[in-house]
Amino acid sequence: MRVLGVDPGLTRCGVGVIDGAPGRPPQLVAVGVITTPSTMDLPQRLVRIEAGLIEWVTEHQPDVIAVERVFADVNVLSVIGTAQVAGLAMLVGARAGLPVHTHTPTEVKAAITGSGRADKAQVGTMVARILKLPAPPKPADAADAVALAICHLWRGAGADRIAQAMEKQALAKQALAKQVLAEQVLAEQVLAEQVLAEQGRGVGA
Q1: Which residues belong to the active site?
Q2: Residue partners of 157: CB distance under 8 A and separation at least 6
Q3: Tens of pLDDT, residues 10-44
Q4: Helix (H), strand (E) at residue 86
Q5: How many Å apart are CA 168 and CA 32, to the nearest integer?
Q6: Backbone phi, then psi, for 138, in 5-degree steps?
Q7: How far is the C-alpha of 142 from the C-alpha of 124, rounded, in Å?
Q8: CA 13 to centroid of chain Cα atoms
Q9: Domain residues of the chain, as ranges?
Q10: CA 157: distance to chain centroid?
Q11: Which fold is adopted by the domain 2-163?
């Protein structure tokens, strides 16, 4: 599975792509940031970020996109911008026909370091250790994007398999219900034909 992680931000939007599969350590494919200057008008910044995300999706062909779920904090204006970029990432994924999943910062930290209270330095260090890199990806936004991708590979993929198994079970139940219904209809038809045949013999006698 190839996962594109997106750490949304207006000034620096972190992006990271990893490959992985059950029983195999993840491999780093690409990592970087999409940047926009604070002096640029907001609509133009969003256009540039969208174009950058489309370029990453086109070049690396991910199977799924993992985006950080945005929560409000003291800096409301910062959160609004981050949420707008998160929405862009979801839109780009949806337009490309890709499944898009969100993970909270606490969830990502817990998956990568074992503690939901880890700081950015600890997350970066563990990302480098997991991927066998000589140093954490820079800047921290890039490392966070890779951490998101790893988190989804480890947690989201398992959830996807459970969902697929549940869907398969539901389809099997539907198929069984249809089969039972068809057998009931057939039995009723046979019974009706037998009744009609008995009535016919009675009339002939």
Answers
A1: 7, 68, 141
A2: 1, 22
A3: 999 999 999 998 778 999 999 999 999 999 999 99
A4: helix 76-95
A5: 38
A6: -120, 145
A7: 9
A8: 18
A9: 2-163
A10: 8
A11: Nucleotidyltransferase; domain 5 (3.30.420)
